[in-house]
Amino acid sequence: MFGDGFGLDYGFTEYVLARVFPGLDLEHSEISPFFSKSIAQLPPTLIAASGFDPLRDSNRAYAKRLRESGVRTWYREYPTLTHGFFQLTAITEAADAAATETALLLGELIRGAESPSPETTVPRTR
């Protein structure tokens, strides 16, 4: 669905992966913890995802797996934004709002705040 035209397309992804992980199995746990046998030992995790992103479905799946493994996981999805929305904060108000919300949440998590609930998925439209 997102193979071309959303800031991170298939061709560019293949180009980068071939250079960063030449000849390596991309499903190796050191490349992607999603493929580890156990991820229960991972720290609390915040995932800020965008709706128009080739990684959206894998972000959702990773958040689900983290939760199922007992890892405190906060997942936020911004359905109107593209991959790399943090770089678009001066261009679009939606990206600025999403980046600000994510940064504030990260600050709360670093300080040890227990809320908002990690189980909450918040698709946003702005």
What does this protein structure show overall?
The protein has 126 residues and is an alpha/beta fold. The chain has one domain: Alpha/Beta hydrolase fold, catalytic domain (Rossmann fold, 3-Layer(aba) Sandwich). Helix content is 33%, strand content 17%. The chain has helices at residues 10-20, 56-68, 93-110, and strands at 45-52, 73-82, 121-123. A three-stranded parallel β-sheet has the order 1-2-3, sandwiched between helices. Strand 2, helix 3 and strand 3 (121-123) form a beta-alpha-beta unit. The radius of gyration is 15 Å and the shape is flat. The two termini are 22 Å apart. The model is unreliable at 119-126 (pLDDT under 50).
Estimated helix fraction: 25-40%
Main-sheet strand order equals 1-2-3
Assembly level: single chain
Q: Gap between N and C termini, in Å? A: 22 Å
Count up the helices: 3
Structural class category: alpha/beta
Report the top-level CATH class: Alpha Beta
Task: Itemize the secondary structure elements and their pairings.
Layout (H helix, E strand, L loop, with lengths): L9 H11 L24 E8 L3 H13 L4 E10 L10 H18 L10 E3 L3
Parallel strand pairs: 1-2, 2-3
